Every structure is written in structure tokens, then in C-alpha cells.
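Collaborator request, handled under Task 6.
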Amino acid sequence: MSRPIPASDYVEHFDPDLPHHRAWLLAVLEQLVAHEPQALEEGGTLRRLWTARQQRASAAPPPSAAPPASKPSRGNPLSVPWFAQLDSATDQARRMCFSSSCAMLLAFLRPGVLTGSNGDDQYLARVRHLGVADGEQRTSGDTTDAAAQIRALASYGIQARFTNQASFSTLEQQIAAGIPVPCGYLHRGPVSSPAGGGHWLIVVGITPTHLIVHDPLGEADLVNGTTLGGTARFCRYSRKNFSRRWMVEGEGSGWAVLAELS
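C-alpha cells returned to the collaborator:
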């Protein structure tokens, strides 16, 4: 006759998360209820062992959480939606490059908050509605106002800041972190003497020799300072020519909006 296994062994190794252990317990309880109901009474061996086991389990510290999985790289270039400023239904089409570029940043970091091919119009409406606090006055929230852009992005939950001290190293860090970068540069005049009121695009990728950009106005001719037009998605702008238009005051003087991942 085989030696019976003590009930304490079963209880000690019982794991309620395992289906076959739960099935075993139900079978045991059915047998006890049918043949030895006294075993489940207060003071009984099984009841005492089971209670002790439960108390030890509740007193034990919870297992340490596994470290969060690292976020996968979003790629280089990043898969950023493109908005064209010239198809705007507003009267701001010729001057809303800043808003269109920030709208592309928003659409990438918060997918779904802007809808349709004119999502940048929706974003522009937010910029113009919020305005910017300035003492006791409040501006109209013009599309060209950097503070208005930062305020609008914050209203969607995007923490960002404007800087006029960006460099290619800044862009490399942001792209590596999975964050595209709106940049403002002088897009008119020859590359040897850039001029104009300025234009904004968004950098979505970077290589040792080129920036990869979405340009809401259309592809630029960086050498001559003209706009070629077209659907300017994933255009390659040389670092050499872009730097002279972007960092016009020397290394580390580029205009950019730098967002953070929440």
C-alpha cells in the first residue's frame, strides 16, 4: 500500500492561477463535502493549513514589476503625416507654414486629434482662438507667433518650447527620440545671402549629409531661394545649403520647436 501524501504538501504547492490546480481543489472539496465534511470545519487540519497558506501569501511582498519594455524606434525618417498649407479653406493659406508644420508634429504625436487632409486648418483655429497672454492684454494668436504655437500645442497635451539655439545635433537627438522638429529658416534670396520673412517646415529624418523634411509650401530650391512646389513629402535638403539659411547667425542659432514625449 502506498504511503499517503500529507494534505500539507498539496496546500503548500497549490497555485490558484493554474487551471489544473483549481480543478484538483474543486475535486477535493467535493469529496470532503461528501465523505468528510468535518475536515472543512473550523479547527480542522485542512482548514488550518489552508488559512496559514493564505496568510503567508497575503503577507509576502508583491513581486517586483518587470522593467517596462523599451519603446521601439520610430524610424528615420519618421512616418509623419503631411499637410499642404495652400489648400487651406481659410484666408491664411500663404502664411500658415508655421501652423501647418506644428500641425504635422501634433498629428504624429497625437494620432487622430486632427482629421482629414485639412487637419492643419483645425489646428490653426485652435491657435487663433487661444491667443497668447501678454500682461493684461491678449493677442489674436497669429499663426506667425511662436508663443501662440506653444500654447496651442500645450492645449493638446504636447509640451514644447521654442528655441533659436538649435543645431544639427539638436535635430539628431530629437529624431532619435522619435520626435519630428518644426524649423524656421530664410527661404528667399540666394544661398550666399538668404533673405525673406522666413518659412517653416518640419524635419522628419536626418542623415550625415541631408535633412528629410515635409515642406507645407512645396519643395524648395535652397540654392536660388525659390519654391518648386509639388507634394513635398520626405524631401531631401542638403545640410550644407540648409544650414546657411537656418543657422544664419552661426552654429547653434537655428529656430525650432522642440517637443517632449509624455
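The cover message to the collaborator said: "Residues 7-59 form one domain. The chain has two domains: 7-59, 85-259. Please let us know whether this matches your experimental observations."
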